[in-house]
Specification:
globular; six-stranded mixed beta sheet; 7 helices; mainly beta; single chain
Length: 653
């Protein structure tokens, strides 16, 4: 893991906890395994849509590299980011999980693949984590995580931050990588298998290709408290991607690609009325996408233009005569263009436009079973360097037009100041918005929810959700260590929630609708610390405090832990042998009924050994001390899989 502040046996367990409590005081940041010098020259693109050195980015940003993911068991993007400051993996129902950034719900984070947005399934389908598995770890070059709203560049859905998955690109010679891993869960069920393959290289000096695919399988896990129900759902999924890369000249590139995948889930659950019995609940999800991207670098500026389409289809089935949820088909078609002018004095200007059509096919959304909306946007950004690059001001705004709301404006102002070689001060303010989903806005939408507890209806009078944010950070770095601390505040308005209309509290008869009644404040501090005392040894620790307030109830927001801490140790014991230890502490949190859930810790180890220059053997243990949330409380919204021992091979050719 790399973090830059640009914007945050019982004896062994006791030692690690003590070490964590000492190191988190230091601030925010973490040392890269390769050292600080490589970090300074690393180029990222998400925070400004232009190439920037990671150490100079005007945002709070972390980067997770594919080679780091190869050392530990990573099944999806949530597990890839679970060690990052400010990130909590929270439940979204049905044992599924999502990424919570600075205490904000998973649907407020925008996910991108090479800068292309993934369709907003969470706004139109319940319990959706299908955006977490579009790219296997073997095909990931890096993941860029920006904490803080970026609607000024990306529009709706970017209220809490942006996750941009940067995929591998073919080099001058053919390269092939594979991963194979098996996990054995202690107890009945829950075993996992995953396989990934990437290959890419040149056809000639103008044409290259890259191909990747993966397969994941997890066995169903029955609840120990009630074997009729599943604690963890089963999963059987595969996907494949093919890309063609054309370079007609040294300064022009065209990328063309297609992706297809299927994901099947299954879980046992109980009926909620009448005779109580167990039945199987199944989701089958199909994902497909296609894109073409053009990049050109000319004397008059840099141009990027893209056209892409993504589709996600979900089909639900239930046995024993239970009525399934109607199928949903969500399609996003997007065309966008960006133009960056050459630097003019102290200014570098970027402007762009985007058109997006969102289509939903669902029997509940309208009498015709179809609904669509169009988004149009223009944005402009100026990067202003002053005083020989010691002071930079980034100012930008985006103008979005939504069919239901007209124009929305999302301004942002950020300042980066370097008083000396080792110190950096960063801070900024911004405004972001999120449009409600097509189902939420539909006057004809009606669906039975919460296992039959109530029926919920759409509301065409909903307003967009908003976030007014501010942050201020201080970072320090030298050759052996780095640390930083960030203060942040989010004022979220017009939160969409469900509201009881009639027969409140009467199961099966209660009716609800969506409404804008809530406002929330989330403020806190992110700190982290990185240290490389000797060659081959790196340590990291982070601590995040989030004070959340639901202003409608004057209580903390449900399922948002106030305190989280993380620690990691990586040791290159020999040229062939590396060892890692990871720990996460999740503090107390409240349920929606204001029951206090206790905190918990999760620890894991991983070992990798290079059998030769091409093949690496991996092994380790997840959930080392067998933390089981159901033993602490049955009210947690998701389950940990228990202790899992994994073994695997990875190869490079």
């Amino acid at each position: 893991m790399r973090v830059v502040q640009s914007g945050g046996s019982s004896r062994l367990k006791g030692f690690l906890l003590a070490f964590s409590s000492l190191t988190v005081v230091g601030g925010s940041g973490a040392m890269a395994a390769e050292g600080v010098d490589s970090e300074v020259t690393e180029v990222v693109v998400t925070a400004t849509k232009t190439e920037r050195n990671l150490s100079d980015v005007p945002a709070s940003m972390s980067v997770v590299h594919g080679k780091e993911l190869a050392r530990r068991p990573v099944q999806d993007m949530a597990e890839a980011l679970e060690d990052e400051p400010g990130v909590v993996i929270g439940g979204i129902g049905m044992s599924r999980r999502g990424i919570i950034i600075r205490g904000m719900a998973p649907e407020y984070a925008l996910t991108l693949i090479d800068g292309r947005r993934i369709n907003a399934a969470s706004s139109n389908m319940a319990h959706v984590d299908f955006d977490l598995g579009w790219v296997p770890s073997v095909a990931i070059d890096r993941i860029e995580l920006v904490r803080g709203p970026l609607s000024a560049l990306y529009g709706s859905e970017a209220l809490s931050g942006v996750v941009n998955i940067i995929t591998r690109k073919p080099g001058p010679v053919w390269q092939t990588r594979f991963d194979a891993m098996t996990g054995f869960r202690e107890g009945e069920g829950g075993d996992t298998q995953q396989y990934g393959l990437y290959t890419g290289g040149p056809i000639n000096d103008k044409v290259a290709v890259s191909l990747w695919g993966d397969y994941h399988k997890r066995d169903i896990t029955a609840s120990e408290e009630d074997p009729r129900q599943s604690e963890l759902e089963s999963r059987d999924s595969y996907s494949g991607t093919a890309q063609l890369h054309l370079t007609p000249t040294d300064r022009q590139r065209v990328d063309i690609g297609v992706t297809y995948g299927e994901d099947e889930r299954g879980r046992d659950t109980l009926t909620t009325s009448g005779t109580i019995f167990s039945y199987r609940y199944m989701d089958k999800v199909r994902r497909q996408s296609g894109f073409v991207t053009y990049n050109g670098q000319f004397g008059f500026g840099d141009i990027e233009a893209r056209l892409y389409r993504t589709e996600l289809r979900r089909v639900n089935a239930r046995d024993k005569g239970q009525t399934p949820t109607p199928s949903s088909d969500l399609v996003d078609t997007v065309a966008d263009v960006r133009y960056t002018l050459p630097a003019i004095g102290v200014h570098r200007l970027t402007t762009g436009a985007e058109w997006r059509r969102e289509e939903l096919k669902d029997a509940t959304v309208s009498t015709s079973g179809e609904k669509e909306t169009e988004h149009k946007a223009l944005f402009v950004q100026d990067e202003i360097n002053l005083f020989t690059d010691r002071l930079e001001i980034v100012a930008g705004t985006r103008f979005d037009h939504h069919d239901a709301y007209g124009w929305e404006t999302s301004p942002r102002l950020y300042i980066v100041y370097k008083p000396s070689e080792h110190w950096t001060v960063r801070g900024g303010i911004g405004h972001a918005f999120r449009a409600p989903g097509l189902k939420q806005l539909s006057p004809t939408y009606a669906a039975i929810a919460a296992g039959g507890r109530f029926t919920i209806y759409g509301n065409p009078d909903l307003k967009p959700e908003t976030n007014d944010s501010a942050e201020l950070g201080l970072a320090w770095r030298n050759e052996m260590a780095d640390a930083s601390v960030t203060l942040f505040r989010n004022e979220v308005g017009n939160l969409v929630t469900s509201y009881c209309l009639t027969n409140c509290g009467i199961r099966g008869r209660e009716t609800r609708t969506y409404t804008n009644v809530n406002e929330a404040r989330l403020e806190g501090v992110e700190t982290a610390f990185g240290l490389r005392p000797v060659e081959g040894l790196s340590l990291m620790a982070s601590y995040t405090y989030v004070d959340s307030l639901d202003k409608a109830t004057d209580r903390p927001i449900a399922e948002r832990p106030q305190r989280t801490g993380k620690i990691g140790l990586d040791l290159q014991a020999t040229p062939r042998l590396s060892v890692g230890v990871r720990g996460r502490f999740i503090g107390e949190q409240l349920t929606s009924t204001y029951v206090r859930l206790p905190g918990y810790s999760l620890w894991g180890t991983n070992v990798s050994y290079d059998l030769n220059e091409h093949v690496t053997l991996r092994a380790g243990v997840d959930n080392l001390f067998k933390a089981r949330l159901a033993e602490k409380s049955t009210l947690y919204s998701f389950a940990e899989p228990g202790r899992v021992v994994f073994v695997g091979l990875s190869g490079r050719f």
